[in-house]
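Final report, closing paragraph on structural work. Over the funding period we assembled a curated collection of sequence-structure pairs, and we close with a single example.
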Amino acid sequence: MLMIFENHFQANWSSIIMEVQRVGLKGWQQAAIAVGSAIGALLDPRRADLIAALGETTGKPAFERVLEWMKRSSEGRAVLLERPRVISAEVSHAWDLPPNTFGAAYASFMGSRNFSPDDRPPVRFMETDELAYVATRAREVHDFWHTLFGLPTNLIGESALKVIEFQQMLLPMCALSVIGGTARFNEKQRKLFYQHYFPWALKAGMRSTHLMSVYYERHFSDDLEDVRRRWGIIPVPPPPKLDAARS
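Its predicted structure, as stored:
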């Protein structure tokens, strides 16, 4: 019964969201989309479109803070001025870089999963072009962060990255995604997450530089371990073996 409701809700909610393309919303409309997206995202944390809508409709104060933090950094100001996009036309050269580089690690991450940088849903609910770009940038650097922290793209890996994203941007959507993701864990996954990934993610998020202020594309040719040290990145340690996790 839950599965039928979930499929029906998600199909209808997606069609509603897709009808609204980068428009201003009244307060009640924003609240309705936020609530609907939150329900859908909790039912299925893999739904990038619903998570994106939730992030935009609840995240304006957080994106405004991120914007101010970026303006305090010379590299962040360069990102805001030049507005680089993480799309195939702009990052395809990463596939040709030496294997030790950050760019090659990103290309390997994307290629091994058959991901495309063009797959991210567009920003629709930000009021200004500047905030819309910040929201777009936050969405598009997600796979850079996967690469830097060495996180998988399964539910545990995505939930761990959302912990770091919350620390970095204070987006309510990130906290809700962690709640929704962990609610779908089985007992073994939940134990692994809270004993291994969650403590690491708290430490990694606090230690890292402000990652939204990094102009990643300028560092594609840099050695991966060098940029990790420079930005205070702690890659995720290997999870404990199954026998150790049971003890």
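The radius of gyration is 18 Å. The CA atoms of residues 84 and 112 lie 24 Å apart. We thank the funder for supporting this effort.
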